[in-house]
């Protein structure tokens, strides 16, 4: 006890003296900057007196630039709403070899009010690993300067207006680049060239560029991008995906491409793929090879024109989420019952008539959604889905509810609105977790006491039924 106290006293004393020493030895760079340029510097973070992170806001002067050039420990520099005119000289900043991250952020609420990224600016940040742009205008020369920053690992453009002559040609030289985001504003980007296929260390690529010709993806050099794990592209001109199968290390593939109508068979080569998301494309068929995607956990193909689900889908042993809502599917293959890890299945807005019995094998299924189809019968086998907590069957042609519904012990939410149900079995009263029950717009004449008495119920909607009052 005593020893402990003594120890504490000594260490406290040591702390105090070292604090005094640093105070005495060095002046605090941030204090100095705030005193002299306080109206332009909105944030300055120091590490034992040395400025490490600075945010310049609203404007900048040459003497501030000169001062910045002396901050030997500066790591991160952000420009927020800073218009940069041609008279300013950024050359002195080339001495800042520890400066790793620079961002230009002109994002204002609601309005789009970008500043141009001037030439002879970016090239004076020699050791950058990260460069970010929000709401800027940029042209060829400034983009070319980025190509000289060969230490870059991450470059991000958000809501960027690209000049007509914009090209990523110089990006060829960025052999350390791992992360690239290109989001164009108002269809200003015309082309994403094949230069991107030189980026052999690229791991993540996000392109949101409607109106642009995304040329790199269909070019034979695409296969250079073997480190690529994530592709996320939004584009309405049409992506030619014929070579996608060469990216065998892909883990996430997310595409929103209005004019893309088919998937190539070689998609099956993507053995590491965990997520395939093709939302809102006019795709008509899913190739059989989809069943080869042995790592797939999440398959999201809502809002396409898909007419059938291949039998091979049953091979996706790791699949957890399957969403094929709003397509033109007429039947569910019985192999669906092989998806033993499936947790969520959504097939809303199709033309499905039959729920296959094999569905009962989906032991982990907790969410089943088949609204807006042409289903007439709920099979007895549904009662085997012990994990099911949401069952959505509104807007079908269902006439009866099986007794086995009372076995869905996890069920919390059931909707059967807009069907032709005539009666509700007493067994529904066994469902002690049931909270939301939608039975409106049916042909039900009486509601069982057992359901009315369930204490867990929060909503029981029986409107628009010919219920006889007793
Ligand atoms: C930048 O570095 C050069 C030589 O490395 C030196 O002569 C010059 O004074 C430095 N500039 C500033 C602003 O520190
Ligand atoms: C920083 O840049 C200088 C000049 O370009 C270079 O000599 C140095 O190796 C770089 N340092 C790091 C850590 O990248
Ligand atoms: C978008 O681009 C079009 C055609 O270039 C132009 O007429 C329009 O003013 C732009 N809209 C905005 C909000 O910048
Ligand atoms: C999409 O394809 C259609 C038909 O080929 C074409 O008319 C349309 O211009 C394309 N859309 C774009 C944005 O290129
Ligand atoms: C997959 O499903 C089909 C149809 O239900 C069945 O015949 C087959 O045995 C299943 N395969 C496996 C590996 O479970
Ligand atoms: C409603 O149910 C009755 C029998 O209870 C049946 O005669 C009638 O056709 C049903 N109406 C509709 C619209 O399904
Ligand atoms: C429901 O509750 C009422 C009164 O609270 C009781 O008379 C009736 O027996 C209960 N019915 C069932 C099926 O538990
Ligand atoms: C029940 O459903 C009808 C129509 O579907 C709706 O108008 C009504 O507000 C709902 N009532 C409750 C209690 O949710
Ligand atoms: C992070 C850091 O070191 N902050 C210091 C900056 O300088 C002030 C004094 O001027 C200290 O109070 C901070 O702890």
Automatic annotation (TrEMBL):
It comes from the Eukaryota. Coiled coil: none annotated. One of its GO terms (cellular component) is cytoplasm. Keywords: Leucine-rich repeat, Repeat, Signal. The keyword Signal applies. This is L domain-like protein. Gene3D superfamilies: Ribonuclease Inhibitor. Transmembrane segments: none annotated. Residues 311-392 form the Disease resistance R13L4/SHOC-2-like LRR domain. Residues 1-24 form the signal peptide. InterPro entries: Leu-rich_rpt (IPR001611), Leu-rich_rpt_typical-subtyp (IPR003591), LRR_dom_sf (IPR032675), LRR_domain-containing (IPR050216), LRR_R13L4/SHOC2-like (IPR055414). It holds the Pfam family LRR_8. It comes from Anaeromyces robustus.
């Amino acid at each position: 006890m005593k020893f402990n106290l003594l120890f504490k006293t000594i260490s406290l004393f040591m702390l105090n003296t070292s604090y005094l020493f640093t105070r005495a030895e060095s002046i605090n760079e941030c204090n100095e900057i705030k005193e002299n340029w306080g109206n332009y510097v909105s944030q300055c973070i120091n590490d034992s007196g040395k400025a490490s992170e600075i945010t310049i806001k609203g404007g900048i002067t040459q003497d501030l630039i000169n001062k910045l050039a002396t901050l030997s420990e500066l790591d991160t520099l952000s420009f927020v709403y800073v218009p940069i005119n041609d008279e300013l000289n950024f050359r002195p900043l080339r001495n800042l070899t520890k400066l790793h991250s620079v961002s230009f952020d002109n994002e204002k609420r609601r309005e789009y009010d970008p500043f141009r990224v001037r030439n002879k600016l970016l090239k004076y940040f020699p050791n950058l690993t990260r460069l970010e742009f929000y709401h800027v205008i940029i042209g060829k020369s400034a983009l070319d300067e980025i190509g000289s920053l060969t230490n870059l690992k991450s470059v991000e453009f958000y809501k960027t207006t690209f000049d007509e002559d914009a090209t990523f040609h110089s990006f060829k030289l960025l052999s350390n680049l791992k992360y690239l985001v290109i989001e164009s504003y108002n269809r200003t980007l015309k082309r994403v060239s094949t230069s991107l296929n030189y980026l052999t260390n690229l791991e993540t690529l996000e392109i949101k560029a409607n109106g642009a010709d995304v040329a790199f993806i269909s070019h034979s050099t695409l296969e250079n991008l073997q480190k690529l794990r994530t592709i996320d592209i939004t584009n309405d001109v049409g992506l030619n995906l014929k070579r996608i199968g060469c990216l065998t290390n892909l883990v996430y593939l997310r595409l929103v491409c209005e004019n893309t109508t088919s998937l190539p068979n070689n998609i099956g080569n993507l053995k590491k793929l965990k997520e395939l998301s093709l939302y809102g494309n006019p795709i008509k068929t899913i190739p059989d090879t989809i069943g080869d995607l042995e790592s797939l956990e999440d398959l999201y193909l809502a809002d396409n024109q898909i007419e059938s689900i291949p039998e091979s889908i049953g091979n996706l042993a790791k699949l957890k989420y399957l969403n094929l809502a709003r397509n033109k599917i007429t039947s569910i293959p019985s192999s669906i019952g092989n998806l033993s890890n499936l947790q969520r299945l959504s097939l809303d807005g199709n033309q499905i008539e039959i729920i296959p019995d094999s569905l009962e094998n989906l032991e982990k299924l907790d969410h089943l959604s088949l609204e807006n189809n042409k289903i007439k019968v709920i099979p007895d086998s549904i009662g085997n889905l012990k994990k099911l907590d949401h069952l959505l069957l509104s807007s079908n042609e269902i006439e009866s509810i099986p007794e086995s519904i009372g076995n869905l012990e996890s069920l919390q939410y059931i909707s059967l609105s807009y069907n032709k149900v005539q009666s509700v079995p007493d067994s529904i009263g066994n469902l002690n977790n049931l909270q939301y029950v939608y039975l409106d717009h049916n042909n039900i004449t009486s509601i069982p006491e057992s359901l009315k008495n369930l204490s867990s119920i929060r909503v029981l909607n029986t409107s628009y039924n010919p219920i006889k009052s007793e």
